[in-house]
Specification:
By secondary structure, the protein is of the alpha/beta class. It has two domains: 51 residues, no CATH class; 144 residues, Rossmann fold (3-Layer(aba) Sandwich). 32% of the residues lie in helices and 17% in strands. It is built from six helices and nine strands; from the N terminus they run H-E-E-H-E-H-E-H-E-H-E-E-H-E-E. The protein has a four-stranded parallel sheet, with helices on both faces. A three-stranded mixed sheet has the order 7-8-9. Strand 5, helix 5 and strand 6 form a beta-alpha-beta unit. It is globular and about 55 Å long. The termini are far apart.
Length: 212
Amino acid sequence: MRVPLFRSLFQPPTTIYPRTGVGAPRTRVRAANKGSRMRSIYRLFALAMVVWVPTAWSAPALVSAPKKIVLIAGKKSHGPEGNGIHDYAWSVRLLKVLFDRSNIRDQVRVEMVFDGWPKEEGVLENADATVVLSDGRDGDKYEEAPHFANPGQMQTIRRQVERGCGFGTFHFSTFAPEVYREEILSWSGGYFQWETEGKRPGILRSRCWMQS
């Protein structure tokens, strides 16, 4: 009789009771000897190899590299650094500490940029996300946010977004002139509108536009 593989591997050794004579009691004899045990061990080893070999030879699981986040702090405009008012450098440092102490600290790598723009733009070229914390132009007050400061910086951010880099703005850097309306909507999905018909209204109304 053919015994299934798993049953033959794991069932206990067969016990038989031969008679030594008419009416004699049965004597317990173990049929499984050393040779049969070794065959069972070989079969078990072969089964383990069948399971293990495909796994061992398969491609190793890819470990994704940490996501790179670049935080850009704008220039200080409201008093000295450390006074807690529009303190972008401090805000960027705080965000980095929060990331470094979070439960995703092994999944992200945060780099900080100060004074409004990186000295070497290469720091942005492999970023997975870029976030700006800065002033923004409010009529004739303050400066444009760094990403609107000049055509070159506009083009740099445009290139990053087009390759798939995320882009976000905090606080005053959400202010955008109407000429860049479509650009900022496509970049970050929203902006703060301070300009009406090319001018700043006498009473600035909080109006945020979001991409639908």
